[in-house]
């Protein structure tokens, strides 16, 4: 993982990247790839697809960089763009119906545990439980509870009513507690 | 309320999203119900555990080389063009016999402007402009804190403001002109040979740009207008909402992942913090516009597609083309079939491919609908 640069440094890289500076864009990639990949992995549930989606998201970002309104807002813009790339792909591949996935997320997460402290096991259990959620409930849970998106944003991204997003979150939390209590 | 009803409200309750009355009812019930207290604690434990999950998961291998190869293999213009055309929304314009004639007239004008405008732009070179010339049309526009009597200049970072009785014209470096309407505030954000960028905080501008596409940008509270050539009217009200109407050529408007391309003869509504709505023909019916607004901005898609299809005429092709990726399943098929009944799918496309959102096929269909597109992109 790359050490976090400050906002001014990121904004400077964005400005350079907008002029076509690949080295600056690579720095942006190094700083943000972990979170972008986590998002792709949790939303898609498949490691191979997550790599493709991560790649697509950065290529897409390069193409659209000139439209970014605030250089300092690169991170949030990048994550929203990533969500859109993932959903477009899932829809295109007809994977937007309820579907379970799972083991790929765990395989990717477990090596990141490092030294195994007391909380590591429960985190893996929770990752496992999230990975078993139906795809829409999982997407809403990941975006709302892990990534901090608002229901309005989720509804917009997923093409749902806000009430449906809330209902899916309620469902996801209930299913997770059921799985974790087993 | 029963325990079952309370438990259905707990998820919203811990997020602080319920109404005050509902929250008080939940609080009162939980205080006297051990089972629901346990349920609430379980939800809080889940939330605490979720907060401990890793925010970052590095991919196993380094993906940068693949990304770099992709960037290398995509000709920049083609990549940008695809990104423009196939964003979250797509669009398409008029098509009727009268619209057809008008469209070809515009295409001829557009082609002339491309040739003459680019020649002019090249002859002047691409030297960075130190300041843009400002000419008073009416009243007393203000740049910074100075009134512009007849002529003035606008430098990077400076604001140009007009009151209800003033208007001004700006020469945008060597690439075009912008007329600033009454009660407007614009700021020059930057001007170089790679791009020219202004901010429209409120009011209205008429832009006429003769340079190659993608050199002139206008930032608004609703997103960014990107000139694809060549004339349009952009309005921003006090709330930051507004509209974009194109009279010649095409304009892309985008905020985050919402994107539209508005062709001549079409308009789209803009909402601060949200982005552009689905474009529509300037003569579209109120029913059609209301249905789009409801689906675009009020999160109530409801029967929007039914309403649009019932109200749509051939002039609304722009709307239907943008709706293709915004609909799903049978609804998308109905949109595609209606559009195809007006503008048959061109060679190289299939119904199944378009329904599956094949980018190349959507682009080909777009070009069939807008022959002048290739003059600009």
Give a quick precis of the structure.
In chain A, 72% of the residues lie in helices and 0% in strands. Chain A is mostly helical and 182 residues long.
Provide the fold topology.
The complex is a heterodimer of chains A (182) and B (377).
Chain A: H1 7-18, H2 22-44, H3 47-64, H4 74-92, H5 103-109, H6 120-131, H7 135-146, H8 151-158, H9 162-181
Helix pairs in contact in A: 1-2, 2-3, 2-4, 2-7, 3-4, 5-6, 6-9, 7-9, 8-9
Chain B: H1 3-14, H2 20-31, H3 34-51, H4 64-73, H5 76-85, H6 97-123, E1 131-138, E2 142-143, E3 146-147, E4 151-155, E5 159-161, E6 167-172, E7 176-180, E8 185-191, E9 196-209, E10 216-220, E11 223-236, E12 242-255, E13 258-263, E14 266-271, E15 275-276, E16 280-281, H7 286-297, H8 304-311, H9 317-323, H10 329-342, H11 351-355, H12 359-369, H13 373-376
Parallel strand pairs in B: 9-10
Antiparallel strand pairs in B: 1-4, 1-6, 2-3, 2-5, 5-8, 6-7, 7-9, 8-9, 9-11, 10-11, 11-12, 12-13, 12-14, 14-15, 14-16
Helix pairs in contact in B: 1-2, 1-3, 7-8, 9-10
Would you identify the regions of chain B where 5 or more consecutive residues have pLDDT less than 50?
76-129
Rg of chain A is 17 Å
- In percent terms, what proportion of residues of chain A is strand? under 5%
- Helical content of chain A (DSSP H or I, runs of 4+): over 70%
Give your account of this protein's structure.
The complex is a heterodimer of chains A (182) and B (377). Chain A is built from nine helices and no strands. Chain A has helices at 7-18, 22-44, 47-64, 74-92, 103-109, 120-131, 135-146, 151-158, 162-181. Chain A is elongated, with a radius of gyration of 17 Å. Mean pLDDT of chain A is 81; it is low at 98-103 and 111-117. Chain B is an alpha+beta fold. Chain B folds into three domains: 3-124, no CATH class; 131-277, Jelly Rolls, CATH 2.60.120; 282-376. Chain B is built from 13 helices and 16 strands. Chain B has a 16-stranded mixed sheet that branches. In chain B, strand 10 (216-220) and strand 11 (223-236) form a beta hairpin. The model of chain B is unreliable at 76-129 (pLDDT under 50). Chains A and B meet through helix 2, helix 3, helix 4, helix 6 and helix 8 of A and helix 1, helix 3, helix 4, helix 5 and strand 11 of B.
């Amino acid at each position: 993982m790359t050490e976090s640069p400050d906002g001014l440094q990121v904004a400077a890289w964005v400005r350079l990247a907008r002029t076509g500076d690949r080295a600056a864009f690579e720095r942006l990639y190094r700083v943000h790839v972990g979170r972008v990949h986590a998002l792709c992995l949790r939303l898609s549930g498949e490691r191979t697809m997550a790599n493709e989606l991560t790649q697509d998201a950065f290529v897409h970002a390069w193409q659209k960089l000139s439209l970014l309104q605030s250089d300092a807002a690169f991170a949030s813009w990048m994550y929203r763009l990533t969500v859109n790339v993932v959903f477009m792909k899932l829809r295109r591949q007809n994977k937007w119906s309820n579907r379970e996935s799972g083991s790929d997320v765990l395989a990717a997460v477990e090596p990141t545990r490092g030294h195994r402290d007391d909380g590591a096991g429960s985190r893996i259990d929770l990752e496992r439980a999230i990975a078993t959620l139906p795809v829409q409930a999982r997407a809403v849970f990941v975006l709302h509870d892990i990534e901090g998106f608002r229901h309005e944003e989720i509804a917009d991204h997923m093409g749902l009513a806000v009430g449906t997003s809330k209902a899916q979150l309620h469902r996801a939390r209930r299913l997770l507690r059921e799985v974790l209590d087993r | 309320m029963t325990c079952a009803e309370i438990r259905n409200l707990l998820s919203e309750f811990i997020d602080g999203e319920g109404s005050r009355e509902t929250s008080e009812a939940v609080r009162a019930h939980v205080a006297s119900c051990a089972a629901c207290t346990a349920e609430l604690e379980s939800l809080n434990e889940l939330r605490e555990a979720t907060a401990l999950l890793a925010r970052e998961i590095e991919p196993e291998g380094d993906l940068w080389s693949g990304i770099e190869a992709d960037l290398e293999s995509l000709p920049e213009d083609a990549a940008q063009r695809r990104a423009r055309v196939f964003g979250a929304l797509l669009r398409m314009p008029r098509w009727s016999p009268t619209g057809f004639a008008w469209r070809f007239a515009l295409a001829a004008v557009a082609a002339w402007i491309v040739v003459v405008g680019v020649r002019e732009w090249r002859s002047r070179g691409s030297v960075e402009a130190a300041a843009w010339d400002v000419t008073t049309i009416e009243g007393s526009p203000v740049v910074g804190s100075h009134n512009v009597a007849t002529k003035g200049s606008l430098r990077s970072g400076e604001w140009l403001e007009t009151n209800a009785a003033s208007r001004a014209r700006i020469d945008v470096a060597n690439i075009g002109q912008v007329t600033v309407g009454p009660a407007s505030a614009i700021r020059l954000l930057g001007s170089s040979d790679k791009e020219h960028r202004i901010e429209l905080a409120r009011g209205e501008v008429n832009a006429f740009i003769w340079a190659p596409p993608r050199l002139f940008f206008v930032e608004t509270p609703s997103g960014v207008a990107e000139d694809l050539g060549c004339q349009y009217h952009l309005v921003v009200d006090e709330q930051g909402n507004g509209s974009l109407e194109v009279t010649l050529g095409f304009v892309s408007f985008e905020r985050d992942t919402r994107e539209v391309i508005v062709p001549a003869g079409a308009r789209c509504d803009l909402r601060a913090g949200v982005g552009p709505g689905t474009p529509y023909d300037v003569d579209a019916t109120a029913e059609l516009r209301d249905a789009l607004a409801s689906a675009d901005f009020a999160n109530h898609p409801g029967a929007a597609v039914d309403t649009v299809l019932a109200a749509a005429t051939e002039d609304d092709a722009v709307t239907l083309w943008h709706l293709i990726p915004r609909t799903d399943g049978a609804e998308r098929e109905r949109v595609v079939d209606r559009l195809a009944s007006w503008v048959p799918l061109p060679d190289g496309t299939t119904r199944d491919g378009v329904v599956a959102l094949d980018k190349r096929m959507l682009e080909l269909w777009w070009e069939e609908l807008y022959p002048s597109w290739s003059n600009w992109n």
